[in-house]
Amino acid sequence: MFTHRFRQLAPYVPGEQPGDRQYLKLNTNECPYPPAPSIAALLHRFDPSRLRLYPDPTMERLREAIANRHGLRLEQIFTGNGSDEVLSFCFYAFFGADLGTLRFPAFTYSFYPVYCDFYEIPYEKVPLTEAFEVDLDALRGPGPAASGIIFANPNAPTGHFWPPERIAEMLKRFRSDRVVVVDEAYVDFGGESVLPLLDAHPNLLIVRTMSKSLALAGLRIGYALGNPDLIKALFAVKDGFNSYPLDTLAQEIGTLAVAEEAYYRDIADRIAATRTRFAASLAERGWQVLPSRANFVFARRPGVDGQAVYRTLKAEGILVRHFNPPEIADFVRITIGTDPQMDRLLDTVSRLWP
Ligand code: PMP
């Protein structure tokens, strides 16, 4: 009854969203602050009869707003149902056995190998440096064999960030006939975008999300920025699956959200300030905290197993994320919430692991 392809499928396991009790959720990098107030106003005045009609399949107003926000042209923008969908279209269009082997860091967004298996893309996991940094030289690789490169910057779950100048050096030495995807899901929390590199590198594609810094994870909007040929390819893939991936309401709210720059700048800055304070306080308590430019930190308490940290905190009503691979199994990834939320975690940590 089931295809061979289906029987081989190893789906991505997202961070848990349990309903058994009220948790302090620091496990999926959601934003602790609400979306911009103008979005609540829009929801109040939204006319439900508009839902009778299909949404705009070209998502033009939303793309126009994103183009304005980033100083780009409409043809340089693709939008999709969460950056997960945008990424899956990238894997479909740009990476595959006929082009070689895709390279990505050994520890990065754990959906990448899932897409590779889904689309039967050969891949190579490139080890991180000893400091848990993405190794850009190793990623570029020795010869011309790579089918492409993908990595997150800042990286997840480590939080490490490379400035655009360093990525430019790598791009200059990498073949221009293969695509390099930089996943900037967390760039607003203190990173710096590779956006200025787009003109010089038509093989560079940036993927962004409104789920983190725009506090809209429930709406599912992701987007890609890049040269019009790559964007056209993503539209072709979209139209091979589902021509209406973003509903009318999502398009409307997303259009408003990208224009609310001051509001979102402020909450991203607040989260970055909380991160700095929280990381220092955790380090004072004997934890190793990797430097992070994202809205999470990756941390371990020497001598304590990460799985035990996860389980013990969960019993206390606090959810963090743990990953099983042995090289990172001592760590937990902790999303940055509000100051009072992080204080609660710090108090709990002090009590449990004095
Ligand atoms: N990229 C990275 C690096 C992520 O951590 C996530 C969040 N799980 C995503 C992309 C996907 O985000 P979304 O589908 O909500 O846009």
- Give the structural class: alpha/beta
- Give the overall pLDDT as a whole number: 96
CATH architecture level-2 label of the largest domain: 3-Layer(aba) Sandwich
Strand content: 5-15%
The low-pLDDT segments are none
The level-1 CATH class of the largest domain: Alpha Beta
Q: How many DSSP E strands? A: 12
Q: How would a textbook summarize the main sheet?
A: 7 strands, mixed
Count the helices. How many?
12
Under CATH, the homologous superfamily of the largest domain reads Type I PLP-dependent aspartate aminotransferase-like (Major domain)
CATH fold-level label of the largest domain: Aspartate Aminotransferase, domain 2
Bound molecules: 4'-deoxy-4'-aminopyridoxal-5'-phosphate
List keywords for this structure.
single chain; alpha/beta; 354 residues; 2 domains; Aspartate Aminotransferase, domain 1
Chain-wise SSE layout:
Elements (H helix, E strand, L loop, with lengths): L3 H4 L16 E2 L11 H9 L14 H11 L6 E4 L1 H13 L6 E5 L5 H9 L3 E4 L9 H5 L5 E7 L11 H10 L5 E5 L20 E6 L12 E5 L1 H14 L6 H12 L1 H24 L3 E2 L6 E5 L5 H10 L2 E2 L12 E4 L3 H14 L2
Parallel strand pairs: 1-11, 3-4, 3-5, 5-6, 6-7
Antiparallel strand pairs: 2-8, 7-8, 9-10, 10-12
Helix pairs in contact: 3-9, 4-5, 4-8, 10-12
4'-deoxy-4'-aminopyridoxal-5'-phosphate binds next to α4.
Describe the model:
There is one protein chain. The protein has 354 residues and is of the alpha/beta class. It has two domains: 13-34 and 262-352, Aspartate Aminotransferase, domain 1; 37-260, Type I PLP-dependent aspartate aminotransferase-like (Major domain) (Aspartate Aminotransferase, domain 2, 3-Layer(aba) Sandwich). The protein contains twelve helices and twelve strands. Strands 2-8-7-6-5-3-4 form a seven-stranded mixed sheet, with helices on both faces. The mean pLDDT is 96. The chain binds 4'-deoxy-4'-aminopyridoxal-5'-phosphate. 4'-deoxy-4'-aminopyridoxal-5'-phosphate (PMP) is lined by residues 82-84, 109, 152, 156, 183, 185, 209, 211, 217, 222.
